[in-house]
Amino acid sequence: MKLEADLHIHTTASGHGYSTIKEIADIASEKGLKMIAITDHGLKMPGAPHWYYFTNLISLPRVMQGVEVLRGVEANILDLEGNVDMPEIVMSDYLDIVLAGFHDETGYSGRGVEENTQAMVAAIKNPYVHIIVHPGNPRFPIDVEQVVLAAKQYNKAIELNNSSFVVRPGSQSLCSQFAKAAKKHNALVSINSDAHICYNVGENAKAMDLALDAGIRNSQILNSSSRKIDEYLSWHRQQIKPVLQAQ
């Protein structure tokens, strides 16, 4: 199955990425992708950029090398209330897509299953968040069924992260559980590279195999179609309007 988009990509701005946005767009074009999301790390990650960087993403062309470029962030879940390390005004006014997940050294330490699940479900309820990233990280154990059911209820996507099999030892089993639960509940998934260098953009073979083994259908994969992504993000923008009007 060929995916049209990679929605989780890091640049040199993340502090531990190795490619520029242009290099990423060039490779994405060569690989036939129609869309990419630039999702550098949120403010609490060591080496992350200042929030000015995220507001200045408006200077990016909407299309580079024939590839649509989404302006995004991989934010860090900070607490049990699902808050993330990005100002709401930046997420609402400057970014197209917000990914969120747990990371070490960002203010949220690995806790027990109950608290981690509470925090992740709260992040799913956060109206600015679109995708929960690498939820199969064994450093932050959670209740898989509860998280997938929340994602289904709030129309959020659960990520199957291709890099997890390399950089997060022990992820295979938990990621498999997420894929099977997503299939069971017909929840939305996003299959991404989490590339930190341009050559890995669009590389998702391990995560794709996991999805196919679980029986996940094409209709469940958010980034199987750039049009599907546009419709999904548009739907969420409509849901946020009442939130912004109430502020």
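The record above closes out task 2.4. Task 2.5 opens with a second protein, given below.
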Amino acid sequence: MAEFFSMGGYGTYVWTSYGLTAVVLVVLLVVSLKSLKSTETTFDRLRAAVGPKEMKRMETANGDEA
């Protein structure tokens, strides 16, 4: 098992690379989720400011109606 983790003497570099990659992916996920939440909040505020009738008219004009 120790031989697997040592990776023929390159284990330090390999596992450090995996660790840094995992940290970067987690940070990217957190930032993306925060951005999504912010965008959804902004969209909800804009939707509330426009009103339901105007939203319906805009959806119909854009062809978004099912």
